[in-house]
Design a protein that fits this description.
Number of helices: 3
Structural class: alpha+beta
Mean pLDDT: 91
Number of domains: 1
CATH class: Alpha Beta
Low-confidence stretches: none
CATH architecture: 2-Layer Sandwich
Strand order of the largest sheet: 1-2
Distance between the termini: 21 Å
Radius of gyration: 15 Å
CATH topology: Alpha-Beta Plaits
Shape: globular
Amino acid sequence: MRLQQNGRALAGHELSVRTLLSHLLRRINLMLDLHMDLRPAPFEVHQLLTVAESIEDDRKGLSWFDWTRYSARQRQEMTLGGVLGPWVLSGDLAPLIPWLTLGQWLHVGKNATMGMGGYQLVDHSGNQAT
């Protein structure tokens, strides 16, 4: 996952739940508008971001990972990178779960349309969350 702020990629230690949710809600809002002509979005952004600020997280498992792909259009190899690894969230996640769950399929961040930015929610016991 590659989240950017002011045009600069954020390393794992620079991420926050608020940043993740902000990028995710922006992507969801764009998808709802573009594909469903749904305006305004069915969520209150500021309220959800306030909830995100109360969530505790552990980013120790995140590390930067670079990979390359060949761009036929640009006729050159491209280096892409982002954070990879477990990101543990704890607290009252209930208001965020529907949006975090949707994000598993939509992906989030730069190059999400190329398959980057995917994640999988897992509950505390290690089972996939539904």
